[in-house]
Each structure stands twice: as structure tokens, then as C-alpha cells.
Amino acid sequence: MRIEFDRDTCVGMFQCVAEWDAFERNVDDGKADLRGGEEIGEDVFSLEVPEGEELDAKFAARTCPVDAIRLYDDDGEQVV
């Protein structure tokens, strides 16, 4: 499972931070950061979801009010 985070779209509500500790507050920018995420585009970050953390990643994606977080299964199909 892989997560993608569009940081440019993020509005800093930080619900993702409350749901999964892979996200952290960046109070200087007023946006979340995806810890360990690899930049795959302009301000878009990707991270393989560690085994056992899939549910937390789903909650983080579902709680984002602006859909800045997308989750993909191992076949590349978008889950959230």
C-alpha cells in the first residue's frame, strides 16, 4: 500500500496528524508534512505504508477535508 500527499493542497487542519503518526504538523508553513515521504512531483510526496499501519493511513486519508491524501493498493488502484 502506498500513500501520496499533495502538500500544496493541504490547508493545515491537521486531522491526518491526529490519525496517523506518519504525518506531523509544520507550524511554520501551516501545513502537514509526511515523514519519510519521497518527493515525486512538485510538492507531492509518496510513502510505502508500513505493514500494520494500513488502517491508520486510511483514516488519515479519509479525514483530510481537501482530499490532499490518496491511498493506493499494491496493484496501483486508488483505495481512498
From TrEMBL:
<keyword id="KW-0479">Metal-binding</keyword>
<keyword id="KW-0249">Electron transport</keyword>
<dbReference type="InterPro" id="IPR051269">
    <property type="entry name" value="Fe-S_cluster_ET"/>
</dbReference>
<dbReference type="GO" id="GO:0051536">
    <property type="term" value="F:iron-sulfur cluster binding"/>
</dbReference>
<keyword id="KW-0411">Iron-sulfur</keyword>
<protein>
    <submittedName>
        <fullName>Ferredoxin</fullName>
    </submittedName>
</protein>
<dbReference type="Pfam" id="PF13459">
    <property type="entry name" value="Fer4_15"/>
</dbReference>
<keyword id="KW-0408">Iron</keyword>
<keyword id="KW-0813">Transport</keyword>
<dbReference type="GO" id="GO:0046872">
    <property type="term" value="F:metal ion binding"/>
</dbReference>
